Amino acid sequence: VPNEQFATSGSATPAPQGNILTFSSSLNNVNASEKVSDLTSDANVLKVLSVTSNYGADKPQIVGVSKAVISDSANGGTIQDSLKAGKKYYLQAWVTVSGLQKSKKYKSTNAKFGASNSDSATTTNQGTVTNVKIAIEFNAVDPNAKGNPYVSYNTSVNNTPSWETLSDKQTAFSKNAPATVGAMVDEINGKFKVAPNSVTTPVAFVTNADDVIQQLTAAGIKVNGTGANATFTIPDKGFDFKVTSYNSTNGKSAVAYAHFKSSVDNSLNYPLIRYSNNSSSDYFNVQQGSNNFNNAMPIVTVKMNTNDWAETIVNHFKATQAGKMDGNNVVPEGAALRLVSSDLSASGFNANVAGLYPMTLEAKNSDGLTTTLHFNVAVTGSTLDEIKNVTVHSNGQVKLVSMVANTTSDLNGVIVNNGQSIAVYPNDTKTVNGVEYTRVARTNVDREQNNQWIETKYIKEETKTEKTVMHDAAIYNKDGQNTHATSLKRYNKVTVLGDKVSINGASYYKIGDNQYIKASNIDGTEKTLKHNAYVYATSKKRANKDVLKKGTKVTVYGGSYKFKNGKRYYKIGNDTKKTYVKVANFE
Question: Residue 388 burial (CB < 10 Å; 0-12/13-18/19+)?
Fold first, then answer.
């Protein structure tokens, strides 16, 4: 083709100085069933392409197509006669552009399309240039292909289930903005995982300085400088960095946000929203810039077919113009902010269909400042449709499973962590091979269509039992690592949660979120005497006249103590008396 030029399309590397043509396209995701002949028709090429010029007097317009093909490469490549879902293709077209300056050279930068140099073409005396080559990238998709992409949080932060698809516009974490673009990149990278569907192992989301700068600029935030050292100032409303996961097979995408607050803390100027379950002690507060992930608060429930569902939902909340409510859950006089039904918004909500739906509540005060809360609403019909948030109690990660014909299978990458909240249908349970499972609830997915289950034992209410610490007890995390927090002193009471758990082969009691103490400090450990033994109160004084015979089983508490005589002793006896036996008698 004579006079072949490669013109820019969309964003490209910086163009050379002079008259530049920039092409753009509405082509993005194309149904794989589309005929190549339809895509390359003159009518379609003219429809999906547009052109602009950097010379203000120009009125460029694509007026003709001399050739168009579909290729697997932007430059040359193999010509395609059909499309396959999940593949990337290029529409290569040779077009004629009119409305330009007469007899002038127009340049284009070709680096994006694989050419090594910039080139130019000269218009005719009618202001027309012919056979300018355009290469448009697009994806072939099958809209009916199964698989919903998702964005998940990489670790257990703010009670965010690491497996759960975050709702559109969901804020996954919130923190003060750093000083540079590079620092923001570091804050984002690795915080999220993305996957094209629920059966593909998610991978860490990675961004770069250029992408951050592009999103900052698009949000109207001025960026000073380039690259990682560029600086910026976050406005009062903050900045949401968009994280996107894409399924190239069906063209579906999922989005979540990382919210960065202004380094100037003016959050108290914003309205405060409080969720209340008609109790001064059962409430949840959110203020603009604070974490408002929906699983951090109870699920709001409405009965199916409720006509005044919006009013029912709004009545669960209170709001203030700014600042905080007092400690008695009372709104200061004159500070109340009235919430109405129109403050609610939801995508896909249907009060006539049971399920879990994402909902948004916005409170706007008299200064025009708005606090936004994202939360979940459960529409319930039958008892099976009831939904509640529960906390996972486990020693590490718990895999969710699918269930077919009383057979369970692991879901790759679908896990929850100890201490996380998860929405479930507590009354929808099944038992397989003696193990009871509870169905998991997900937003905008019908109960019977959501084939994800968790072992019921992991979501049962933890029993609280008061016990006495018989030996100074260090506090460990779920991995058995000493947290070096202040230890629990012997003979004090402690509330343990649930039954004993095993960590690295040793028994522990859970006493808080990711806090454990060794069970031997409470229950002791049974040991057998290998020698007759006296019971001592000190290194020199016996506690009594008893002699414990060889072969006797004795419960000792915690580790041994070193007395002044240099010898080590175990505490025995479930009391506060000074009763010790030499360690040597057990060896």
Answer: middle
State yes or no: pLDDT of 343 exceeds 50: yes
352-402 pLDDT tens trace: 988 888 888 888 887 777 888 888 888 988 888 888 888 888 777 888 898
Let me know whether 515 and 421 are in one domain. Answer: no
Q: Are residues 432 and 482 located together in one domain of the fold?
A: no
Cβ(518)–Cβ(505) under 8 Å? no
Q: What is the mean pLDDT of the chain?
A: 79
Mean per-residue pLDDT, 301-318: 88
Alpha helix segments (H runs only) across 163-208 = 181-188
State both tokens at 195: 């996957």
Instruction: Give the single-character DSSP code of 296.
Output: G
Cα 330 to Cα 310: distance, rounded to the nearest angstrom = 24
Residue 395 burial by CB count (10 A; 0-12/13-18/19+): exposed, middle or buried?
middle
Whether the predicted pLDDT of 224 surpasses 50: yes
243 and 190 belong to one structural domain: yes
Q: Which domain holds residue 477?
A: 464-521
**Same domain assignment for residues 105 and 223:** no
pLDDT of 117 over the 50 cut: no
Inform me whether the pLDDT recorded for 173 exceeds 60: no
Q: How far apart are CA 543 and CA 534, in angstroms?
A: 8
Cα dist. 20→11, 108, 110 in Å? 13, 6, 12
Using DSSP's 3-state secondary structure scheme, residue 521 falls into helix
What's the distance, CA 200 to chain centroid? 16
pLDDT reported for residue 550: 93
Q: Whole-angstrom Cα distance, residue 412 to residue 397? A: 13
Which pTM does this prediction carry?
Answer: 0.42
Task: Using the 3D structure, point to which of 90, 120, 141 is the last residue of a domain.
Answer: 141
| Domain-terminating residue out of 362, 381, 400 | 381
CB–CB of 138/30 below 8 Å?
yes
Clarify whether residues 275 and 351 are in a common domain. Answer: yes
Q: Is residue 124 domain-shared with residue 233, that is, in the same domain?
A: no
Structural domains in the chain (count): 6
